[in-house]
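Quick entry between incubations.
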Amino acid sequence: MFSFTVGFGSLRFRSVMAFQRVFFAILFVVTILGNASAQETPSPPSIGKQPKWCAMEVQEVIPYRRRSGSRMDCRRRCTWNTFCCEFNVIPVYTTAYREVSHLEWKCCDDSPAPCPYETLSVDVPYKGIRLFADEYPVPPLPYEYDALEPYIDEKTARVHHLGHHAGYTRKMNAALKKWRDEVGPGVGLQSNSILHILENLDQIPDKHRTAIRNNGGGFVNHAIYWATMSPRGESEPPRLPEATLATEIIANFHNFSNFQEQFTNTAKTLFGSGYVWLSRNPREQTLIIHTTANQDSPISTGLRPLLVIDIWEHAYYLKHQNKRPDHIQDWWALVDWGQVKALSDWWAAYDAGHDEL
Amino acid sequence: MLSCVKLTQRVASHPGLMAAAGTRLKHTLPDLPYDYGALEPTISAEIMQLHHSKHHATYVNNLNVAEEKLAEAQAKGDVTTEIALGPALKFNGGGHLNHSIFWTNLSPNGGGEPQGEVLEAINRDFGSFENLKKKMSAASVAVQGSGWGWLGYDKENNRLSIAACANQDPLQATTGLVPLLGIDVWEHAYYLQYKNVRPDYVNAIWNVVNWENINERFLAAKK
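Done. Structure below.
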């Protein structure tokens, strides 16, 4: 926006009015032009002051039907001279209430810029990564801990989420705080979302980079891992990608089973700790299978990750011990292609600079 | 008393002898000097069994396979394949070397304080055993992903040094230090018992560290 200060000095009233009319006409035209050019190139979200979000636990009381007891129902079955009852047990239900809590993002009171929305729900694990926040909560799983049985056992899901993922989240928050306290607020890279920070790893000061790379990576990588899996019913048919994604996979890998084989072999032969990804290269609009070591993220090399398998031993050791191929096979059963598509669309919206989440 | 197996191994590990015989040495899984359950409660029998009979065995097998392929490639003069085999040789060769050292570094009669000449070196280079323990534990816990924490001997400067290596990178080939004590911090080394709490495992392993073996290695390295 443009601002002018003009001193009128000692002009007489009539000429002042005329001058004012011309002045405002010019101001009006310039504002329109300014706005027009702003719309042609939407301001990228990474420049300038970022809206700041704070995660809140919101308590909600929801009703549910609960069996409170039963009553005996007597159906008279009588002959002309005897009275007898056929007893039936009828269950009795009442409405009960329970308190559930869920996470929501709210605009922080000290946000340096206005937020596009009042609140946002943390319904999908990765959505929070593009928000600038002082502290990120561990994103809750989109399903119960035992819901991925028998493919991923409940124990593994618990330790993986509450031990490892939570640990990375805590340490990432600590590393971000250390950096931000040192540099102070402002419009530098530190006052931005973890997603944007990971995209610009080399701009993080040396002393903070390793901690943010490892723990920020762990935070984001696990969010995508959980999000692209979903519980599987007993007699569910094989899961396959939907139309547009299927077409893309065929275009890049010849056919789906070829893609699956290549992905599986890459996962079997990865050495040490790391991940295997299906990512989109946004510049070339191709899909690639690739690996990252430790907690490195494809985001840091400009890729858009769509699907991932965690090959760290902690992802499968309790159930499969050293038998990694069994883990890979179990994981394929849980891949939710609908979620993969949703993630793909989410990246497209992010790259187009849209505010909606 | 040398068993037949040990005798064969001793003969087989003499490079000159085997070269003269014209056969290529095949690596074998070394026996554990103690039972799988001997290091309880520090390291569970289940972990020891998987670690030795599955993980280490796989490194040995894959190393043999890689060396076969290397020999073939060398015979054909196929340098591209030779180079491509590099990573596999490093992973599996390193894995075999590292674990072979590791099993000897531990003992059911281990723990306690260091002994012998290595104790003097520890006091000289770290101030105290407690300090060494603190620093080496920290370095081992801090390894990102999979790797090893090492106490090594720097021959050039005649001092002990703590190092950490990623994956199965062998200490001597990577840093030049002679390995004395290694702590395996791959998750398979502790997960079934300690889950994600690596610090508990690293603190506990000092209870089974075999100082006799470490002292032997130190004396051998100094020669």
